[in-house]
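pinned: reference chain
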Amino acid sequence: MEYRFEWAWWFPRQLALKEFRIGCLEYEFVEMAENIISVHIPSDADFQPKRVFESFRNFFSFRKRYFPQWENSKIYCESWLLSPVLKELLDDNSNIIRFQNCFVVETTDYDSMAVLDWVFPGYKDVSVHLPENTSLQKKMKNYLLQGGKIGWSKGYLKESCLNYVIKVL
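pinned: its structure tokens
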């Protein structure tokens, strides 16, 4: 087994004890005018709904015990995974769509091409050379080559999802 930090710029957040990996997700305590909790999806995350809800439940217990002052903070996620466009590319049984359904999307920056870093690592531009190793890559490549944009979205955890997780705690 090998341990390493995939993204070097992420390390200070973990070292400062502002971000914690709990199950398949990471949670960052972001101090602002209104403190928020930012959910991050690691590249190796088991994205099955059961694992996602388990992570939320374990995080809520963790937060209650170690960070009770953050209990009423909104939980946000910023990712290509929240892009509304994905509902056109994936079916309702997709783990990505199930994750999306837990969030209310507030904004989407359709000019962001950051999705390439995650779905097509090592590629900086849309071209016929993008790999097609997964069904997501195939669908997304075709969509992008036709001029479509995936973007980067920001949303907050829905009250209904939050209540479901709390109820099963």
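why pinned: The beta strands are 19-22, 25-30, 36-40, 74-79, 103-109, 152-157. DSSP finds seven helices and six strands in the chain.
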